[in-house]
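Supplementary Methods, section 5.1.

A reviewer requested that the exact input to the structure prediction be made available. We therefore reproduce it here, unchanged from the version used in the analyses.
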Amino acid sequence: MQLQFFPSRTVTLYTGRMFLVRSFAVLAGLVLILMTLDLLGESDRILAYPGNGEAQLWTYAGLRVPQIISTFLKFSVLLGTLITLTTLNQNSEVISMKASGLSAHQILAPLIVAGLLVAGISFAFNERIVARSTATLTAWQKAEYGPMPKDSGVLSNLWVRDDEDLIRAGRALGRGPQTRLEDVTLYDRVGNTLSQIIQAKEGRYIGGAWHLTDASRFDVGTGTETKLGNTVIAKGVTPDRFTLSNVDPDGLSFVQLKQAIDDLKAAGRPTRTLEANLWHKLSGPLSAVLMPLLGAVAGFGLARSGKLFVRAVIGMALGFTYFVADNFALAMGNLGAYPPVLAAWAPFLLFLLIGETVLIRTEE
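The structure derived from this sequence is encoded token-by-token as follows.
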């Protein structure tokens, strides 16, 4: 038995199912409570826009729930682990398993594999649903909960500064040299004083400058408007300054964020902050695999010794300390103090070693 990684098929399915049911039950309770509190705090802003009503409140809830699930899934897995192992310990099932020759690692194996399943579901959920809902909700909040923005992938309302001049593009389509701007406005300033405004329906990047179509110029000093036809502006302003001016890692999937990082590198712009978030999209869901190991201290020891509650508190403290360390490392990565890979993976590897050390020293 000691040479097998898993206990019997019956015990494996029993403990794995118990762990999953309790974890998702805790998650459902957390989502219900937190969504209710969040909606109470945000409903005033949503209903403040004329014409908004119950439908917009449900829309907000539909966009916000995936974010809450993504954030608190790892907390639910930790609490599910503690509840599962505490229950097994109280019912003397852990004692029975150890008496049959199972080691602590074999008892935890079904929970770790179930945690790996949760990690895979979490990653797919983040990629397919959370990134899209975050991008849509962010755009809706920028519109002060006005007309719902379409999720077309087209960037809108972009501003770029060229020395003293300001350039606004209503929309930006495409990537790289094929970028096309629509509804372009150039605010030409001299000595911080607005001298003229150039507007055009469309602008294309050709030969290091932006070629405008059907442009017109309004002279602020004389108050006259002149038709320019096709004209050239903003020499040296590259397309990436429009398309990559504000990359939100939370609103992009892993593949989209990787593509944005490659574009920024090609443009010679810093990417360390985004790289830390890219790696964290992998290490974050894997925390579900770590929780059974950190919470394992609650499952062992004699329940009648009176220290079961203390063990559960210790397991919870280890889990929450990991969350604090993970957020701290990611913040340091965003500031550039930690290398991206270290910021994303160091807390996971550190607490993996801590969990293994505690388990081996106390139970093996």
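The first strand starts at residue 155 and ends at 162. These observations are discussed further in the main text.
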